[in-house]
Amino acid sequence: MKAKIAVLPGDGIGPEVIAEGLRCLRALAERHGHELTLTELPFGGAAIDLTGNPLPRDTLEACLRADAVLLGAIGGPKWSAPEAKVRPEQGLLGLRSALGVYANLRPVRVHPALLGASTLKPEVLEGVDLVFVRELTGGIYFGEKRREPQSATDVCTYTVAEIERIVRAAARLAHKRRRKLVSIDKANVLETSRLWREVATRIVRTEFPQITLEHMLVDSAAMHLIRRPSDFDVLVTENMFGDILTDEASMLAGSLGLLPSASLGEGTRGLYEPIHGSAPDIAGRGIANPCGTLLSVALLLRHSLGLEGEAAALERAVSEAIAQGARTPDIAAKGASALSTREVGDAVLAKL
Ligand code: IPM
Ligand code: MG
What we know:
Elements: E1 2-10, H1 14-32, E2 35-40, H2 45-51, H3 57-65, E3 68-73, H4 88-99, E4 103-109, H5 122-125, E5 129-135, E6 145-148, E7 151-154, H6 160-176, E8 180-185, H7 191-207, E9 212-217, H8 218-227, E10 234-237, H9 239-253, E11 262-264, E12 270-272, H10 291-303, H11 308-323, H12 341-351
Parallel strand pairs: 1-2, 1-3, 3-12, 5-10, 8-9, 8-10
Antiparallel strand pairs: 4-5, 4-11, 6-7, 11-12
Helix pairs in contact: 1-10, 1-12, 6-7, 8-9, 10-11, 11-12
């Protein structure tokens, strides 16, 4: 097959993890005879330095023309002064919105070899296999923002249509899995959450009667996620709750560096990025965990290119490499020496 992929390495450890993602992608394409056009483009802080804009027009246009976008990470202290008018994050939100990728899938699985890497007890983590479906293009992230001398305002709005489409995306996913859907909100306080709960109930009851829907308040969900994580199957929630809870959930897997994400809209075009940030504290040292990016590449192969076999092969290769001790410092076993980003990439390539 032929496909165009826009590659946005971004800032901090972004370029380091993306380099490993591209090596695996090229190897798979070569092996299976796919013709991939990979175009690297400036984005985030790097693009601010170059053009003054975190999402330059050429970058956006290339992303809109592509079949999929692969993104590293953005941001860093250089661009985050409180008074900064232009921020890398604006580029990311602008890109998600322009691509219309409202459904952000963040799967969390616990690798048996990493049961000891988490700060949580192994017996709590056994059998964890859940997916967050985070609403990505609405809510408080995109509402009006105002700053006055003695106050500041962020508006949170959700429309019925926005809630319907994200609940449908989550329910369709749950239908293919264990048919258990938890919808997370703060309906005891927020009006948007009361609407969310109403719509979620109606959509599941009328369109997905085979699915069990449970509503959970976000504070309670934060607690149950670490108390009994293996009970969860699919969780759907609004933008900011999803942002917070998925960082929490990454600790089930053992490291923020392990988690991939896929952001999808109506067609097959998607945006793929590890859930971690640019980690300026370790950038340039070659020790970042590339697995979140490698698994994001697998999601790209599956969801945007329809290459299930290649996706599964890459996921298997990552899993086998980890099982055999290919681990960066964030997940290294006690007493064992850690590998570099490149060495973990090598180990996965060898398995491929
Ligand atoms: C994420 C990140 C972003 C978000 C930031 C960098 C704007 O934390 O993808 O989870 O809040 O969505
Ligand atoms: Mg986040």
